[in-house]
Write a structure and sequence with these properties.
The protein is α/β, with parallel strands linked by helices. It has 10 helices and 20 strands. The strands form 4 sheets. Strands 1, 12, 13, 14, 15, 16, 17 and 18 form an 8-stranded mixed β-sheet that branches. Helix 2 links the parallel strand 2 and strand 3. The two termini are 32 Å apart. The structure holds pyridoxal-5'-phosphate.
């Protein structure tokens, strides 16, 4: 099989989605399955829908278009503020888009009018992470002006935290979103349908508080695909963390000194961290690098340590064990590593066929969470 390759277990993705959907349903929250880390893969979309997500969300219109073209049927949300230049494509392929700019909403309304549609708008509110969002003090004014556009409908409010500045969702900012919902409803005599409280980083908040206020939807990508809570990268109870793994192949394997020699300056990707002299090690090179993934986001099997990487080489210490050329080694990924592997044309994407919790390669058992 060609490598590097991402082995995708659609059954595990569906399992992860369904566990989160069931847990959140008990709290009155629906799940929008986020497909952006998968380039809008229709197979991943189907796994999410099979797990019970009620809508699909992506930040790129190209991915929503790809899913439509592949025959995926589901309510579709564009999670990033639309570009003015893409308004026509947005009304054609998204039922709802997240918005913060009246100029964009105006353009969406005229585009929707041209094709005889009404486009749904969720207004995003800034609650401190300083990425997208209307400042709370400007929300009522924005709603008032957007309600004048004929072919858009205000479907709800949303917010996004944790992505840019690491601001965590908590009782305070979530209560503020609920309060804003009340203010908008009171001021304009309408009922908002979608209150989109955030992303995978909101899961901790849902399990820490009794009262979740008006929040009735979360947009989940990373937690479903990787089975981890993005705030602390801890495995989520009952979810697989190895639904997607990256497999690379060994191209050099030699005992080498752990210390480089010669005059040390910068390496290909900047400063090199100081190395500790551990004498001679089994140094192994795999045929993939920064062009294929984010080496800092890889978790190797037990006994293997990532030492460094350049564009096309990943250098590992294989501990006491020599890994012959040709050995295939599986790695778990974080979100950054997954995103880069998914978008690299050098990484093959393959369906993982064998069932069972672990992939056995040369006796290396890949770690997976204890399954509750
Ligand atoms: C990417 C994204 C999400 C999904 O985030 P995860 O951490 O992958 O769950 C949700 N909302 C918005 C606006 C996004 O851009």
């Amino acid at each position: 099989m060609s490598s590097p390759r991402l082995e995708i277990d659609f059954g595990k993705i569906q399992h992860n989605a369904s566990i989160l959907v069931q847990r959140l349903a008990k709290r009155g929250i629906s799940v929008t399955g986020v497909t952006k880390a998968s380039l809008g893969s229709p197979l991943i979309a189907k796994a999410l829908l099979g797990g019970g997500v009620s809508a699909l969300g992506d930040s790129r219109i190209e991915n929503l278009e790809a899913m439509h073209q592949a025959g995926v049927v589901a309510p579709m949300t564009l999670l990033r503020s639309p570009m003015l230049s893409q308004a026509m494509r947005v009304v054609a392929h998204a039922d709802v888009s997240f918005n913060t700019e009246l100029d964009v909403i105006s353009k969406l309304s005229s585009a929707a009018r041209q094709v005889g549609r009404h486009h749904g708008i969720v207004l995003m509110v800034e609650l401190g992470d300083l990425r997208e969002g209307i400042l709370p003090g400007k929300l009522l004014g924005t709603v008032e002006r957007m309600l004048r556009f004929p072919n858009v409908v205000l479907r709800g409010l949303g917010t996004n935290l944790a992505c840019r500045s690491g601001v965590s969702p908590d009782a305070r900012n979530m209560a503020q979103l609920s309060a804003l919902v009340g203010e908008v409803e009171g001021a304009f005599g309408l009922e908002l349908e979608i209150i989109s409280g955030g992303n995978s980083a909101n899961l901790g908040w849902t399990s820490s508080y009794e009262d979740l206020g008006r929040i009735n939807d979360l947009r989940l990508g990373e937690s479903i695909l990787l089975g981890r809570d993005p705030l602390h990268r801890q495995p989520i109870d009952g979810l697989y963390t190895d639904a997607m793994i990256l497999v690379g192949e060994v191209i050099e394997s030699k005992p080498k000194p752990s210390l480089p020699w010669g005059t040390i300056a910068q390496a290909a990707f900047g400063e090199v961290p100081p190395v500790i002299n551990r004498g001679e090690i089994f140094q192994t090179i795999l045929a993939f690098g920064r062009q294929d993934t984010d080496p800092e986001g890889l978790t190797p099997p037990p006994g293997i340590t990532v030492l460094g990487a350049s564009s096309d080489h990943l250098i590992v210490d294989s501990g006491g064990c020599r890994l012959p050329v040709g050995t295939q080694i599986p790695f778990e990924l974080d979100y950054s590593a997954l995103l880069r592997a998914m978008t690299s044309p050098f990484v093959a994407k393959v369906r993982k066929v064998q069932s069972g919790p672990a992939l056995r390669v040369m006796g290396l058992e890949h770690p997976h969470p204890v399954f509750a």
